[in-house]
């Protein structure tokens, strides 16, 4: 269809997804016969309404003002569309001017009809939904989809075309009508009510830009400004540049929380990229679309991920975009993506998701239940994997190969290796594959690998849909190394590998000293959310999952320390009784991790790689010692991974904000109430500061009389930063102009809007801070913020108000702010104490609250909301009641009653009493628990496992050896702050030559035993047999090559063998016999003495 412009300078043909211009004079779209113009009686503005809302930076607008100042303002107030001498890119924009608008050319435009000789005009035309077959709208939608990465099929139902033709600024009318420099440019808005796009077209840009002339998008409401072109580029050059397939045209998707620009940008000063998707799993394989510069078909491009050498070649799609595959990585969180080509490098960031948090559907599946774990077995007869074909290909002819990828850590670094192909030329559409593991056995150095990944990869030149390859989660590969292990060690190879690891790992146990002590109870562990977060594989929220608590079957909930220490982390598990489960009491107990499961920065090196280091150091070793030996060698593991005693645990102190400005301080007594709007310091300690924004209720309450409601304030936002250590985080309540169907809160990091709309993105780490979407309802209404210093807070929307619960470790000093000190005192910023008890409400506001008002140069919010500002209205510290009712549901809670009387809202009042009850529960849960810690008698059976003050515990018997010493102990108070076991613990489970082998049953604390009698004949005789190649053990100075704590060594008549006898009080574990003994055998082989045992104190070995 050809459309001819009335001015005769353009002819465009709409073909499929773009407007193909047959003449290139102008990028402007032509009008039909329905265009209108601002008339002289309107002067500078025209108010227009749309039947379909335009969604702009996640807010919906149905009314807006067209202004001669080169902008469209999303407001009904024409005064908000005035030109102001404001640099909108600055952070100091007044919140009273900060209206959302789109400006193809923001300037002080001349009014229509003021001067007879002025020929400029502002024309507009609506492209309405009256004709469902509107070809123009359909083609515009297809065109925009083709220009912006991540834009799926878009079918707009309403549009608006505005053209500023031959317009000038007011300060240029000293010229004559024929000589005035003028501009002609155009804005096209199209929407379907959910997604919206904007197109800027520039035909003529002759005016010299003024100081405050700008082109771009203002989000309004402190969202910020986005330039359409680098500020180093003169705005007169807009007609010569592009961000689309046509010179002078710029295309943007404007509905998300940030403006997304089209590709093929010729802005020589810009090195920014747009990508989609914006996240990928750490194990790679995902395809991302990349746009930025104009791409050339025969020019090679490559994508680099992070600061290292992880790269993939780019595939050319069009001048607008290329595609890159995310390679297999060893990092998580935000990393740089660099596009390299044509002699220049462009940048953006991509979020790399921790493997355990990636959507399950994006993994190759290897486990279906606890009863079907063949991939994790030591000798399976067959193995089956499954995958989702639609993630790889929609072509029934495409084939895949199945690969085994190994991982190991050498020379302080991690590395991947393709070990073997498990299958090839398999239809991608099959979605499943079964193999015989005995046909796939390792050889050579590949037999040194202990863990790996499965990879399903497209073959040949197949075009991937979303993934080039899919990966499994980490798996042990005993089935792959089985033949090698049997040859090297025999049928007891798991035990031999366990002992080998044990002897290496015990060389340095100092890392345990730096870990946090476990909380003593489940309620403490759940409440101390700033330092502990639920373990994704064992938690109460996942109770219905059949694989929940796979490695801790007696637990109902485990938590992990949020912050790693030198790469290590702690894990604490709790039983259904709420008690901490000690590894000494059960093999299902709490075990710390030498490699934190979530990894640790800087990643990529030994102990620090997410998931993989943890598997090498803490998981595959559990298989060796416990799961693959029927728990018969599990003592070795628990000896190296003892539970961090809860006796040293010190709980944090809570504070809270909720309802209509109620502030519960660290003292835990009656809350204070905020009186006026503005930004205030809630908490300050050292470089850490938390600010709260209070304002009038943005939503109407249940009463129609809203005048009195405007006299009180509620929390509407929180900002936090540990200055110098962390990024700056803002979380704010979404106002009524936002779509709240799937998001109630806005989250910004360093001023940039962050999306948490997919499960894989629910946990995001930034510099010094983590942000977690803890809302299971897919409403983004509940977030947890975790600082690296242990401070954490939860913020949630309820009844259109915000609630905040803060946790601060007791170790913090010099705490100030509206929450007071940790000891409950209230101080002014200069440290002067103030007695709140005798202050009138007006004095509390003027002398205390305003003293903590945030100043301009100290705001953590993008734009300051100044307290006590005249434009915020008067502050009434004693507002009148709407009613005098005392609802029964308030249960005499004064905050609930106050909120009901002043808002008339039952929902707000109910949320306030619920928040008050939650705070009370947190305060009670986090009182210090007095515990004597573990009753330290290894391998013993006990009557109970509660070690708190006043508890009496009796040791009934031993799993290994015979009980010697006192059997019954009580945890008694030794001072106001200390406690200890009484009497002093002297019990031991003494192992003799009659040893027992523990076999774990399915019951949490029940053990079943078999007894094996070992008869030993002691002898001090020596032999004169000569053992060629091995050190002569007749000389005691050579014994240290065997191990410590040796009393005597006897050379046996049998060639190449000797017996090692331990010193009194020391024993060795005989893996082959599953027993303890005071002696063990060694063998001379390959020039050295070989042994898998060592003399050790029996009471030092901890059972888990």
Automatic annotation (TrEMBL):
Subcellular location: Membrane
SUPFAM superfamilies the UniProt entry points to: E set domains (SSF81296)
Keyword Electron transport attributed: no
Source domain of life: Eukaryota
Sequence ranges assigned to domain AMOP in this UniProt record: 490-641
Keyword presence, Nucleotide-binding: no
Residues covered by the VWFD domain: 653-860
GO BP annotations listed: cell-matrix adhesion
Primary site of residence: membrane
Keywords: Disulfide bond, Membrane, Signal, Transmembrane, Transmembrane helix
Membrane-crossing residue ranges in chain numbering: none
One GO term describing the cellular component: membrane
Signal peptide residue numbers: 1-24
The protein's name in its UniProt record: Sushi domain-containing protein 2
Species in which this protein is naturally found: Dreissena polymorpha
Top-level taxonomy: Eukaryota, Metazoa, Spiralia, Lophotrochozoa, Mollusca
């Amino acid at each position: 269809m050809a459309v001819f412009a009335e001015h005769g300078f353009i002819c465009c043909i709409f073909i499929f997804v773009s407007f193909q211009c047959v003449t290139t004079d102008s990028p402007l779209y032509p009008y039909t016969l329905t265009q209108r113009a601002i008339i002289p009686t309107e002067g500078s503005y025209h108010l227009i309404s749309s039947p379909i809302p335009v969604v702009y930076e996640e807010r919906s607008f149905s009314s807006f003002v067209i202004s001669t100042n080169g902008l469209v303002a999303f407001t009904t107030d024409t005064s908000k569309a005035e030109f102001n001498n404001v640099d909108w890119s600055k952070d100091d924009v007044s919140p009273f001017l900060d209206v959302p608008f789109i400006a193809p050319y923001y300037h002080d435009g001349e009014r229509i009809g003021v001067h007879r000789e002025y020929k400029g005009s502002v024309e507009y035309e609506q492209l309405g939904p009256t004709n469902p077959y509107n070809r123009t709208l359909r083609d515009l939608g297809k065109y925009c989809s083709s220009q912006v990465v991540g834009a799926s099929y878009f079918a707009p139902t309403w549009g608006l075309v505005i053209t500023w033709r031959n317009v000038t600024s007011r300060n240029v009318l000293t010229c004559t009508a024929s000589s005035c420099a003028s501009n002609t440019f155009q804005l096209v808005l199209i929407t379907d009510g959910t997604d919206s796009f904007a197109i800027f077209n520039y035909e003529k840009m002759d005016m010299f830009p003024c100081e405050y002339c700008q082109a771009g998008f203002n989000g309004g409401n402190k969202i910020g400004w986005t330039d359409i072109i680098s500020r180093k580029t003169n705005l007169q050059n807009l007609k010569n540049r592009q961000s689309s397939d046509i010179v002078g045209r710029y295309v943007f998707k404007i509905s998300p929380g940030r403006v997304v620009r089209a590709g093929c940008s010729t802005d020589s000063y810009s090195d920014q990229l747009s990508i989609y998707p914006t996240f990928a799993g750490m194990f790679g394989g995902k395809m991302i679309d990349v746009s930025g510069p104009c791409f050339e078909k025969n020019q090679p491009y490559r994508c680099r991920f992070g600061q290292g050498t992880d790269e993939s070649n780019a595939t050319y799609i069009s001048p607008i975009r290329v595609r890159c595959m995310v390679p297999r990585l060893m990092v998580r969180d935000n990393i740089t993506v660099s596009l390299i080509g044509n002699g220049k490098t462009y940048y953006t960031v991509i979020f790399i998701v921790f493997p355990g948090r990636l959507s399950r559907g994006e993994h190759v599946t290897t486990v279906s239940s606890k009863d079907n774990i063949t991939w994790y077995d030591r000798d399976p007869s067959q193995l089956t994997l499954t995958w989702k074909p639609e993630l790889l290909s929609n072509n029934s002819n495409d084939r895949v190969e199945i690969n085994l990828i190994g991982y190991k850590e050498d020379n302080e670094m991690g590395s991947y290796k393709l070990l073997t192909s498990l299958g090839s030329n398999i239809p991608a559409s099959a979605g499943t594959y079964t193999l015989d593991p005995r046909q796939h056995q390792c050889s050579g150095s590949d037999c040194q690998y202990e863990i790996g990944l499965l990879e399903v990869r497209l073959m040949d030149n197949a075009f991937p849909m979303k993934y080039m390859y899919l990966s499994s989660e980490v798996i042990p590969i005993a089935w792959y190394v089985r033949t090698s292990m049997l040859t090297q060690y025999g049928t007891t190879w798991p035990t031999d590998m366990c002992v080998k690891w044990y002897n290496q790992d015990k060389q340095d146990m100092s890392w345990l000293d730096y870990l946090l002590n476990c909380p003593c109870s489940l309620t403490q562990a759940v409440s101390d959310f700033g330092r502990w977060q639920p373990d994704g594989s064992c938690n109460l929220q996942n109770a219905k999952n059949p694989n929940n608590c796979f490695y801790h079957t007696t637990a109902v909930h485990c938590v992990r320390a949020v912050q790693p220490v030198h790469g290590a982390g702690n894990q604490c598990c709790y039983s259904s009784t709420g008690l901490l489960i000690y590894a000494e009491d059960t093999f299902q107990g709490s075990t710390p991790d030498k490699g934190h499961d979530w990894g640790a920065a800087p990643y990529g090196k030994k102990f620090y790689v997410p998931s993989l280091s943890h598997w090498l150091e803490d998981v595959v070793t559990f298989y060796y010692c416990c799961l693959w030996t029927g728990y018969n060698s599990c003592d070795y593991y628990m000896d190296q991974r003892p539970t961090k005693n809860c006796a040293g645990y010190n709980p944090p102190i809570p504070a809270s904000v909720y309802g209509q400005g109620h502030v519960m301080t660290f003292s835990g007594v009656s809350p204070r109430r905020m009186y006026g709007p503005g930004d205030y310091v809630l908490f300050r300690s050292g470089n850490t500061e938390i600010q709260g924004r209070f304002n009038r209720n943005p939503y109407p309450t249940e009463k129609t009389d809203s005048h009195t409601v405007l006299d009180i304030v509620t929390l509407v936002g929180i900002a936090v930063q540990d200055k110098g250590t962390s990024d700056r985080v803002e979380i704010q309540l979404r106002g009524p102009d936002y779509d709240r169907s799937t998001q109630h809160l806005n989250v910004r990091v360093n001023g940039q809007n962050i999306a948490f709309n997919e499960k894989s993105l629910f946990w995001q780490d930034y510099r010094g801070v983590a942000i977690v979407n803890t809302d299971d309802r897919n409403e983004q209404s509940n977030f947890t913020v975790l600082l690296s210093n242990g401070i954490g807070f939860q913020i949630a929307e309820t009844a259109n108000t915000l609630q905040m619960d803060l946790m601060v470790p007791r170790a913090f000093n010099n705490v100030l702010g509206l929450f007071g000190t940790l000891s409950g005192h209230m101080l002014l910023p200069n440290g002067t104490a103030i007695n709140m008890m005798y202050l009138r409400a007006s004095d509390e506001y003027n002398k205390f609250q305003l003293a903590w008002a945030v100043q301009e140069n100290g705001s953590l919010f993008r734009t300051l909301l100044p307290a006590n500002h005249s434009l915020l209205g008067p502050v009434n510290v004693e507002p009148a009641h709407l009613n005098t009712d005392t609802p029964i549901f308030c249960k005499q809670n004064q905050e609930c009653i106050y909120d009901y009387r002043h808002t008339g809202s039952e929902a707000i009042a109910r949320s306030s009493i619920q928040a008050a009850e939650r705070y009370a529960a947190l305060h009670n849960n986090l009182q210090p628990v007095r515990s004597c810690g573990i009753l330290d008698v290894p391998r013993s059976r006990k009557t109970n496992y509660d070690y708190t003050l006043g508890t009496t515990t009796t040791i009934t018997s031993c799993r290994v050896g015979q009980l010697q010493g006192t059997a019954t102990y009580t945890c008694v108070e030794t001072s106001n702050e200390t406690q200890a076991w009484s009497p002093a613990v002297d019990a031991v489970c003494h192992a003799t030559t009659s040893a027992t082998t523990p076999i774990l049953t399915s019951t949490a604390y029940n053990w079943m035993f078999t007894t094996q009698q070992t008869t030993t004949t002691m002898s001090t005789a020596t032999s004169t047999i000569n053992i060629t190649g091995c050190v002569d053990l007749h000389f005691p100075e050579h014994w240290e090559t065997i191990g410590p704590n040796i009393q005597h060594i006897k050379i046996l008549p049998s060639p190449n063998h000797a017996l090692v006898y331990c010193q009194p009080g020391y024993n060795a574990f005989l893996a082959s016999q599953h027993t303890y003994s005071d002696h063990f055998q060694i063998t001379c082989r390959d020039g050295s003495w070989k042994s898998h045992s060592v003399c050790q104190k029996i009471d030092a070995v901890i059972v888990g």
